[in-house]
Amino acid sequence: MIEMDLDEDMFDGMVTADTAMLHKDMLTRSFRQFRFAALAIILLTVATRLPLIQHPQAFDDEVAYSVVANAIVDGGRPYVDAIERKPPLLFWTYAAIFKLAGKYNWVALHVVALIWTLATMAGLYVIGRTLFDRTTGLIAALFYSIFQPWLEPRDLAFNGELVMNLPIVWAWAIALRPNSSRLRPELLLSGALLCAGFLLKQPAAIAAVPLGIYLLLPSYRASRGLTQMASIIHAAMLTAGLVGALGVMALVLYEQGILREAIYWTIIAHAVQYVFWD
Questions:
Q1: pLDDT band at 1 (very low <50, low <70, confident <90, very high)
Q2: Can you give the chain as a three-state secondary structure string?
């Protein structure tokens, strides 16, 4: 009887060990497939951007932005020494690239555009994985890689639309993280990133609205076990991050003596001054 019990215990132990080994093999195989899929998406993205990297000239909007950026490199100020109606962070991003790589270095600019695209895709992957699973995250990244330049080569340019996507995507990726804490300091960063999107291209500001509403939804509170007050605190922290970053930018522009000019050229000058009708 004792021998039978020992045999059964040994059998159960062998089954458990075999099951654990099988599970480990499946996880290893799944991870390999994931790495292969991720590498394929990255290579596809690089391949479809090679014409941009090899292009020795500016693409579309890059011409105007580079003029302002190189004026900044030479010690000038945007909206005074060179005027374009985009927000200042876009010009400072261009200026930083040209400061490091050389003025009008289009290859360096386009390499940064590729890296910027890959970083945006990484954020979309994080969002998809957070809300669903790794496969959904990879599909989201793949779709961005394919459709972002779809049938329009000028969309490969390092323009405002491409640039603003990165901070928007990562702001949402941070906010969507499963966190049931009453205080979420990372929402300050999320708000600051939304502000950065606006300071790269004005329409990005609208991305803050649905995210703020999401933090106040009953479904958001229920999924995290939060009270209504905690939800309000989260929305307030997001707002504080956005407003705080905007305040810092206003102070920088004021110190440079171009705050009024920046407001005029980025906001007021876009307004419709006249309306004609028959």
A1: low
A2: CHHHHHHHHHHHHHHHHHHHHHHHHHHHHHHHHHHHHHHHHHHHHHHHHHHHHHCCCCCCCHHHHHHHHHHHHCCCCECCCECCCCCHHHHHHHHHHHHHHCCCCHHHHHHHHHHHHHHHHHHHHHHHHHHCCHHHHHHHHHHHHHHCCCCCHHHHCCCHHHHHHHHHHHHHHHHCCCCCCCCCCHHHHHHHHHHHHHHHCHHHHHHHHHHHHHCCCHHHHHHHCCCHHHHHHHHHHHHHHHHHHHHHHHHHHHHCCCHHHHHHHHCHHHCCCCCCCC
